[in-house]
Amino acid sequence: MRIAVLGAGIVGMASAWWLQRDGHEVTVFDRAATPGEGTSFANGAQLSWSYVAPMAGPSVLRNMAKYMFDGSSPVRFIPTADPAQWIWALNFLRACGADAAAAGTAKMLALSFHSRDSLHAMLDATPMAFDHARNGKLVAQSSSDGMADAVAQMKLQAAMGCEQFALTAAECIALEPGLASIAHRLVGGIHTPSEEVGDCRKLCLELHRVLSANGVQFRFGTEIRSLKRAGGRVAAVETSAGDVEAELYVVAAGIGGRRLVPVPLQPIRGYSITAAVKNSNAAPVRSITDLHVKTVYAPLGGTIRAAGFAELGASDTTPDPAKIAVLRDNLAATFPGACAMDELAPWSGLRPATPNDLPRIGRTKLDNLLVNLGHGSLGFTLAAGSGHLLADLVAGRKPAVNAADYAPGF
Ligand SMILES: Cc1cc2nc3c(=O)[nH]c(=O)nc-3n(C[C@H](O)[C@H](O)[C@H](O)COP(=O)(O)OP(=O)(O)OC[C@H]3O[C@@H](n4cnc5c(N)ncnc54)[C@H](O)[C@@H]3O)c2cc1C
After folding, report:
1. In principle, which of 60, 310, 356, 401 could form an S-S bond with 95, CB 3.0–4.6 Å?
2. Which one, of 102, 11, 5, 8, lies nearest residue 378 by Cα?
3. In terms of domains, do 185 and 287 share one?
4. 32 neighbors 38 (Cβ within 8 angstroms)
C-alpha cells in the first residue's frame, strides 16, 4: 500500500520502520531539513521502560498551588486565553484520581514493555548506533514522604512485571559515588537495572539511513498545510510542494498534529543541556533522576545530558537562559568536576501531551487516516512499540497490546 507518514520525529520514523517491514511503499514528510529536529532532538535520552506513570496523579492535586503561583517551580501551569488549554486542564484534573492513575500506569507499562521488545527486535534486525546503553536508572529521593510514595509505586509496579529495588542513602552512594555531593539530603532511592539510555536524534538519523537504503522516500522541507477530505476519507494532503495523494495517511507530527486532526494535545515545554565529560570518575554511570530538583542526568556517549522542567502553557522553543542556568547549576552541584561546563549545548522542546498521558494510536473516523500522536514525556520510550502497534493495525494483525487503550476516539 502507498502510505504517507506525516512527521519525521522518532514516532514517525519508528512507524515508517514497521510499515516498511510489512512491504508498504512508504513516504515520510517533514517541514525540517533532517529527521528528529522537533521534540526528538535533545530530550532526556531515557528509555524509561519502568517509569511511565502518567503525569496526572494524586501528587499533582497536592502541589497545585505551587505549580500555579511559584515562578521558580520546575513544574508550572501558565494559563493562556486558549479555551482548548482549559478543557485540556479540566480533563487532566479528572485523570488525577488514584484509581485513574493506577489504570493509566498499567496501560502505559503495557505499551512501554511492548516498546522495549519492539526496539530490541528493530536493533536485532538492523544494528543502529545511537549511544545506546543498558545501564539502569537510579531515582534519588530527598524526602521520607517521597521515598514512601516511591516504594508504594514500586510495589504496585512489581505486580505489573517491573523489577526494581529500594535502596538506602548509603546504598545509593555505593552504586553512584557521585551522589556523595547530595548525601546531606539523600534519604534513599529506587534502582531499576533494566532501564536504558540512547540519543533519540541519533536514532532518527540512523533510521533515516536504514529506511532510505530499504526504499523509503523522504520529502524534507515540506510543510503539511491540511488534510483534504472527501466522502469520509482523506483525498490528499495539501503541502507546500503541492497536493500529495496516498492510499493511507499516518499523522505523526508531534505537537504539530493538533493543527491537522482534532486530538487533545497541549505543549509541555522542557529543557536540556548537554555537556562533555572531562572526568569520568566524577560522572554518573547510569541515569540518575534527582527528584528534589526534578532533573534527570543521562550518560550519553562521552557527554552528560541534564533535562528537566515542565511548563504547560508555553509554546515557543527558545531556551530561557534562566532555566538553562538552573540545569547548569544542578549538574555542576550534583556531579562537581564531571563535565566541561563552559561549552554547553542548551535546548528546549515541547512535549505533545494528552490529558491522561496516553498516546492516541490507530484508525480514526476517516477511512484511510491513522494517527500516532500524544506521547508527551515518553515519546522516545514508547516510539518503537507505538510504531509496531500502528503497523499491526494497518495489517489487520492482532497487536501485542490492547489497542482500544490507545484508540484515538475521533
Ligand atoms: C525536555 C524533554 C525531555 C524529554 N525526555 C524524554 C526522555 O527522557 N524519554 C522519553 O521517552 N521521552 C522524552 N521526552 C519526550 C519525547 O522527546 C517526545 O515525546 C518525542 O520526541 C515526541 O516525538 P514525536 O515524533 O511525536 O514528535 P517530534 O519529535 O516533535 O516530531 C514531529 C515532527 O513533525 C514535524 N511536523 C509537525 N508539524 C508539521 C507540519 N505541519 N508540516 C511538516 N512537518 C511537521 C516536525 O517538524 C517534527 O519533525 C522529553 C521531552 C522533552 C521536551
Report:
1. 356
2. 11
3. yes
4. yes
State whether 223 and 322 are in the same domain.
Answer: no
**Closest residue (by CA) to atom 41 of ligand 1?**
224
Residue-number span of the structural domain to which 241 is assigned: 2-40+201-264+357-406
User: Are 236 and 189 contained in the same domain?
Assistant: no
- Nearest-atom number in ligand 1 for the CA of 380 is 11
Same domain, 331 and 206: no
Give the pLDDT of the chain (410 residues) as one tens digit per residue: 999 999 999 999 999 999 999 999 999 999 999 999 999 999 999 999 999 988 888 877 777 777 777 777 778 888 899 999 999 999 999 999 989 988 999 999 999 999 999 999 999 999 999 999 999 999 999 999 999 999 998 998 898 889 999 999 999 999 999 999 999 999 999 999 999 999 999 999 999 999 999 999 999 999 999 999 999 999 999 999 999 999 999 999 999 999 999 999 999 999 999 999 999 999 999 999 999 999 999 999 999 999 999 999 988 999 899 999 999 999 999 999 999 999 899 999 999 999 999 999 999 999 999 999 999 999 999 999 999 999 999 999 999 999 999 999 99
Q: What span, in angstroms and rounded, lies between the C-alpha atoms of 302 and 196?
A: 16
Residues framing ligand 1 (Cβ under 6 A): 7-12, 30-32, 37-40, 43-46, 48, 223-224, 252-254, 256, 270-272, 307, 349, 351-352, 375-381
Distance (Å) from CA 355 to ligand 1 centroid: 17
Given a contact cutoff of 8 angstroms between Cβ atoms, the answer to whether 325 and 168 are in contact is no
User: Are 345 and 272 in a shared domain?
Assistant: yes
Mutate to test the pocket of ligand 1, among 380, 382, 406 (most ligand atoms within 8 A of CB): 380
